[in-house]
Write a structure and sequence with these properties.
It comes from Rhodococcus erythropolis (Arthrobacter picolinophilus). Keywords: Signal. Helices cover about 35% and strands about 20% of the residues. Strands 6-5-7-4-8 form a five-stranded mixed β-sheet. Strands 1, 2, 3 and 9 form a four-stranded antiparallel β-sheet that branches. Helix 4 links the parallel strand 5 and strand 6. It is globular. The two termini are about 30 Å apart.
């Protein structure tokens, strides 16, 4: 996706430099040491107070991951999960989905990174982990072989939550990056990339 945007902006590969920035650091107010960040950021009003977002490039739902064979893996709806130890990354929309939608009986565990949250699930420190569904499929298929997708949040989330690129507040590049994303949507590139790189959310049951 990042390379597609860069190409659309007219830059060559040798003109691009990639850097690593912590998820929460990218969302803090103030100057950035990057032009735009491609980490899977959900566009939200609160975040717009500190940073700019490009046009959205992917509609996303939240998903629940649990260890295969566990009680949490048997959940059929969100209410079934309320009594379990749940976790998500600090500052993420996944964490907000736990507190606002599942409304657990105990406060969810917060983790600095998704890697920390995955480790906690593997160690049995939490019963289930909430992440966006592309990340959920990647974790269960490639990183935690003993884990499964319990299901995804109800369908409204898939159309009200979107990924967008993050830029410094009032960045002169925001309009350019948004125009590139819009062009990639119009010519079908976004749909092609999603089909190629992101597992279809239809593969996960909906937790009503």
């Amino acid at each position: 996706m990042a390379r597609a945007v860069v190409d659309k902006l007219g830059y060559n590969a040798d003109q691009v430099r990639f850097t690593t920035v912590a998820f929460n650091d990218a969302l803090k107010p103030g100057p950035k040491d990057f032009d735009f960040d491609v980490n899977q950021f959900t566009v939200s009003g609160d975040r717009r107070e500190n940073v700019d977002f490009s046009s959205p490039y992917y509609a996303v739902a939240q998903s629940v991951i649990a260890s295969r064979g566990s009680k949490a893996a048997e959940a059929k709806n969100l209410a079934d999960l309320a009594g379990y130890r749940l976790g998500a990354q600090t500052g993420s929309t996944s964490l907000a989905a736990i507190t606002d939608t599942i409304v657990p009986t105990t406060a969810p565990r917060e983790f600095a990174t998704t890697d920390d949250a995955k480790a906690a699930l593997a160690a049995g420190e939490i019963d289930a982990l909430v992440v966006d569904i592309p990340t959920g499929f990647h974790i269960t298929e490639n990183e935690l072989p003993g884990s499964v997708i319990v299901g995804q949040f109800p369908r409204p989330n898939a159309v009200t939550e979107f990924f967008g690129f993050v830029l410094e507040k009032n960045s002169p590049l925001t309009a350019c990056v948004s125009a590139a994303v819009d062009a990639l949507y119009a010519d079908g590139t976004l749909e092609r990339l999603a089909t190629e790189w992101i597992t279809d959310s239809a593969d996960a049951p909906v937790l009503e």
